[in-house]
Design goal:
alpha/beta; 12 helices; 9 strands
Length: about 350
Amino acid sequence: MFNTPFVFSFALLLSFPLLFLFVPRILPPKHVEISLPDELDDIALFRRATLASLGGGATVSRLGTTNPKPKIAFLFLTNTNLHFAPLWELFFQNNEGLYNIYIHADPSCKITSPGGVFSGRFIAAKKTQRATPTLISAARRLLATALLDDSFNSYFALVSQHCIPLHTFQYMYKTLFVKPSFPMYRSFIEIKSDEPVLWDRYIARGKNVMLPEVPFDRFRMGSQFFVLTRQHALVVIQDKRLWRKFKLRCLNLQSCYPEEHYFPTLLSMEDPDGCTHYSLTRVNWTGSVGGHPHTYRPPEVTPRLIQELRFSNSSYSFMFARKFSPDCLQPLLDMADKVIFSD
């Protein structure tokens, strides 16, 4: 019979492969820190964008005055391929000169350029990770790049690889710039102050860490994706005060969603009346799992779903919706002309 030390050693030897297999699934992923070189790169970018915007760059105050053709900058934040690029191609079709595209693609992921209108639109990007301030940095980087690139960019729409358009480009453009009853030149970002999870989110970095810059009664919650005016995009990239707090690492990862708080809190402090306090991106949080919203699958993609996603209880219609699985592309394309792009 085998002696006990031999059995123990043999069992230990067999356990090593299992450890390599299961430990990565049990332990949380390594936290992605914002390095000093990355921070300095961003500061330099933000400074250039600020100087260019404040140093005589044309901005829009009313359609037809300073710039007869204000543009919408579409900011894609992704860590996968842009699976819905063919649908977005149809959205942008025949609207040249009215939009710009900027893509922040996680450099640690193998992402293929979809070509077409997306060709050459990838910006200098840094690694991102969920539940870390790297997502804030990525959004700020997109805003700064778009500000610096074109002084005619007047609205900045942040979307993800899982977002789809719900209307034609012209419908959105006219809604933002022409529609008389629509709030002219206000930012569309969700801002909430009465959510049950707000306190847990506030103390995610420690009980008093956010003080004195961000007292709890000024802390806000909202949507990760938004449509900002040029004025508010500048506010975001010029901020240093709140960023010092929000870039700190969370201790409680279960309550850590920095990007859902930084932008609503900052804009609520700086210009609450300049924000609509609602988003133009529809998200279904029914049955959410692990902080992720409901993901639509091909059997759910019907004309009725598109109509339901557009609907709002306010005076506006949702322009985008998320979150869709990549295999939804074909059923979406099948009804693109007759449903999605038929306003």
